[in-house]
Amino acid sequence: MNRRTFLSTAALGAASTALYPLSSSAQRPKAGDTPSESFDPWIEIHAPNLAHNVREVSRAAGKRPILAVIKNNGYGLGLATIARQMEPLPEVDGFAVVKLDEAVTLRDRDVKKPVLLMGPFTTPDLSTLTARNIMPMVYTPIGADLERAAATLPHPLDIHVCVDTGIGRVGVPYTEAAPLIRDLAARPNVRIAGVMMTFTEDEAFDQEQLKRFTALTGELSSSGIALGRRHAASSYTFFQHDNAWLDMVRPGMILYGVFPSPPFRKGSKIDLRPAVGLKTRVAFVKKIAAGTSAGYERAYVAKADTWLATLPVGHTDGWPRVAAKGARVRINQRLYPVIASVSASHTIVEIGAEQTVKVGDVATMFDWNDGSRPEDVAGASGASVYDLLMHLNPLLPRYLMTEEK
Ligand SMILES: *Cc1c(COP(=O)(O)O)cnc(C)c1O
């Protein structure tokens, strides 16, 4: 569907799509509610695209299960919203987050599929994890603590062991991993549901890391130790090393429909469709004469007479300062360059000699349309697609675009 149909059907609350306002309260959304009529920026979540990406990733990964990474507020889309959209999809085996609070929130919001906490936790936190059936990621000798925490459970505590094969962050060093894994495997209350690693995304070294990992897991498996699923593949690895898909893939960014880096997009065999948009409305339009400046430190000086539009969106909303280095904003089907600088709450765009936009027109910083995709903004300005999504202000109103039943 093109943008015009989407927006007009949204405005009429009709036909093939519906937009639901999402709020952190338990308020029930009403079908046909439209995006904010106010000037405040808002975020749209494209639910059909999200589901499409999940199916597409599963297909391309030879139907391997997907451990969906939804950390950092679901990459900016909204943690509970994303979990709720993905949970019914059979391709999604479970969810991974980094913050304890996010893991707990998922359970408090009734998410039932497995949840892996990839971030740190304290010994007392273990009772929070066991009470909510959250799997900890383990890489230190805490077997005794795990056993104690698991003692109250009617079943063993599922854990994933994180092995550092060269990235140097968390994880037991691969040279010391075998004794730790043997110790954990020997504990009756503990079950190893997975063994995982993270690549450095250095093309040649990744293969060395993979060798270290498969040597370790191969040796342990052949000595009869059950390791659960081996997983390593983030979005980058998904494209770069298909021999690293192992038993389960662990992507984030591609599920949201965004290519992690430009070479992967070009000629890609996988069809990713961005599932998120950042929009606002034109707040002010004015004409300035050649030689007139705009923005802090007079960062822009008009070469010719031109119309300028001010958008009430800025870096506090997650629209990065670097957008002024070449990003273009879509208004009424046309792309206009961001000029001067992006300040906390304002963005200025150059409209040109004709007044082609007016106050109240919808301005799209990025969405799913070609030319306005997050990758297009990133490519034109040097922004990172990760920053574009993950820095979206959690307080902005969010609307869910769904297919009408
Ligand atoms: C964020 C993260 C991922 C997903 O990364 P993408 O590049 O978004 O696919 C996978 N594994 C770990 C450990 C992560 O922290």
Description:
With 405 residues, this protein is α/β, with parallel strands linked by helices. Helices cover 28% and strands 25% of the residues. The protein has 13 helices and 21 strands. Strands 1-21-2-12-20-17-18-19-16-13 form a ten-stranded mixed sheet. The chain is elongated. It starts with a helix and ends with a strand. Residues 1-15 and 24-32 have low confidence and may be disordered. Bound molecules: pyridoxal-5'-phosphate. Pyridoxal-5'-phosphate binds next to helix 10.
Characteristic key phrases:
single chain; alpha/beta; 21 strands; 28% helix
Structural topology:
Blueprint: H1 3-12, E1 17-22, E2 42-46, H2 47-60, E3 66-69, H3 71-75, H4 79-86, E4 92-97, H5 100-108, E5 115-117, H6 125-131, E6 134-138, H7 143-150, E7 157-164, E8 172-173, H8 177-185, E9 190-196, H9 203-222, E10 229-233, H10 235-240, E11 248-249, H11 262-265, E12 276-281, E13 284-288, E14 293-294, E15 300-301, E16 306-311, E17 328-331, E18 334-339, E19 347-352, E20 362-366, H12 374-381, H13 385-390, E21 398-403
Parallel strand pairs: 2-21, 3-4, 4-5, 5-6, 6-7, 7-8, 7-9, 9-10, 10-11
Antiparallel strand pairs: 1-21, 2-12, 12-20, 13-16, 14-15, 16-19, 17-18, 17-20, 18-19
Residues 69, 71, 118, 198, 234-236, 250-253, 260 line the site of pyridoxal-5'-phosphate.
